[in-house]
Amino acid sequence: MRTQVAIIGGGPSGLLLSQLLNRAGIGTVVLERRSREYVLGRVRAGILEAGTVDLLEQADVGARMHAEGHPHRGCYLTDDQQMIHVDFTESCGEGVMVYGQTEVTRDLYDAQDRIGATHLHQVDNVALHDLTGDAPHVTFDQGGKGHRLDCDMIVGCDGFHGVSRLAIPEDVRRDYERVYPFGWLGILSETPPLRDELIYANHPRGFALASMRNPMLSRYYIQVPLTDRIEDWSDDAFWDEFRRRMPDDVAADLVTGPSIEKSIAPLRSFVSEPMRWGHLFLCGDAAHIVPPTGAKGLNLALADVRLLSAALIAHYRDGDDSGLDEYSAQALERVWRAVRFSWSVTTMIHRFPDHDAFDRRMQQVELQALATSDTARRLFAECYTGVGL
Ligand code: RFL
Ligand code: PHB
Questions:
Q1: How would DSSP label each residue in 282-340?
Q2: Mean pLDDT of the chain
Q3: Of 141, 170, 189, 343, which has the fewest beta carbons less than 10 angstroms from its beta carbon?
Q4: Which helix (H) or strand (E) holds 208?
Q5: DSSP 8-state code for residue 2
């Protein structure tokens, strides 16, 4: 088998890259470890930056997002009982779109089917070969048989637990990591959202987030110790704890119902440099992870794809390799800015087991800056909507 660009991983990065390249006449094969149903069953991010919305339009997957997504012009943060509103549109002229990663992924699969793109699912033992030589290729097993895919380039879109990043030699690769001492327990419920915009709550009992997918589908999270398991949390226990972490007058409006999904995600900041090695390029979670607090993970992954797709199109169309040569350095600039934002919001809004009275004062000063300073609100809004990254 031969293709121009072999894409490892059929999550949002891999699918969008395949979509943009196919539309430019460049051949791709996507190799995905899981079934399509499994990929579509994962509940993850919910917020799209303005630039992500534009990119999905360019890829011809914007129609349902515009019909069913919900533009938001701001969000709330709390400091115990105090509600602080940041109006993104007033502060920086942009907003965000509430539209789940699951829906983005579904739209990408549908668009890929329409143009007849090649996806191989349930592949195992993916291995990358000759990354700096003349014959880059990927080997893998599918249906009990071994296969070889020859290509010009390999793009690792296989997430944090993928194999692509590990194909970069250890003496070349540099990893940076911060593991946070808590996770997020999230539930999805068919209930009306608590408010018209998201609420990020800093409460003495810990962080909580009220998010949503649509007027009858809510997504709620609470900070939990890393040792907690899903079985420890009945729906009732979740709702009780969530209610206690919201300001009293907001909590009074909470509509509860059975959870239709429940999961715990650990929080981590991670960056692996470089994002290119020979014929291998990395996109998205394969190269970097951010805690979900800033809603950056999916957006950052798709920003990589925007850069890399343009560079690959310039390579094939005009023989211009400057974009490929600059890809790693350019992508990492945005990555580090998003890592800083996600880390700083995480630090401002969670209760850390080792925080003392001093750390708490720092949180209060930062939250009060958002309440009182146009400049602080603008900085936050620019990062959250992505225009300042
Ligand atoms: P993905 O979505 O992880 O997709 C990678 C794909 O590669 C496949 N794969 C392989 N395929 C072939 N061979 C292998 N060896 C492979 N190893 C892995 C996987 O099956 C998968 O289909 O990465 P991508 O495309 O870069 O997209 C990134 C986003 O998914 C990610 O940044 C966000 O979802 C992060 N994230 C969240 N971000 C937010 O902004 N808000 C959230 O609420 C939020 N919740 C989450 C999250 C990430 C989570 N993960 C990764 C554990 C919740 C979870 C649980
Ligand atoms: C979500 O709706 O899943 C969500 C929204 C905002 C975040 C994280 C997760 O910062």
A1: E-GGGTEE--GGGS-HHHHHHHHHHHHHHHHHHHHHH---HHHHHHHHHHHHHHHHHHH
A2: 97
A3: 170
A4: strand 208-214
A5: B
pLDDT in tens, 227-270: 999 999 999 999 999 999 999 999 999 999 999 999 999 999 99
Tell me which of 209, 213, 261, 345 to substitute to probe ligand 2's pocket, judged by most ligand atoms within 8 Å of the beta carbon.
209
- What pLDDT score was predicted for residue 217? 95
> With contact defined as beta carbons under 8 Å apart, do 19 and 112 qualify?
yes
285 CA → ligand 1 middle, Å:
6
Residue 43 has pLDDT above 90, yes or no: no
Q: Which two tokens stand for residue 182?
A: 């808590």
Quick one: average pLDDT of 6-12?
A: 97
φ/ψ of residue 229, rounded to 5? -120, 160
Give the position, in ligand 1's atom list, of the atom nearest the Cα of 42: 55
User: In order of start, what are the domains of the chain with their CATH numbers?
Assistant: 5-71+95-177+268-346 (3.50.50.60), 180-267+351-385 (3.30.9.10)
Query: How do 5-8 and 28-31 pair as beta strands?
Result: parallel
Q: What is the DSSP string of 89-123?
A: HHHHS--EEE--HHHHHHHHHHHHHHTT-EEE-S-
Q: Is 360 helix (H, G, I), strand (E, B) or coil?
A: helix
pLDDT single digits (tens) 151-169: 999 999 999 999 999 999 9
**Distance between CA 278 and CA 11 in Å, rounded?**
23
- Quick check: pTM over 0.90? yes
Report CA(354)–ligand 2 centroid distance (Å).
25
Q: Which residues of 157-167 are buried (b: 16+ CB within 10 A; e: fewer)?
A: bbbeebbbbeb
pLDDT at 42: 87
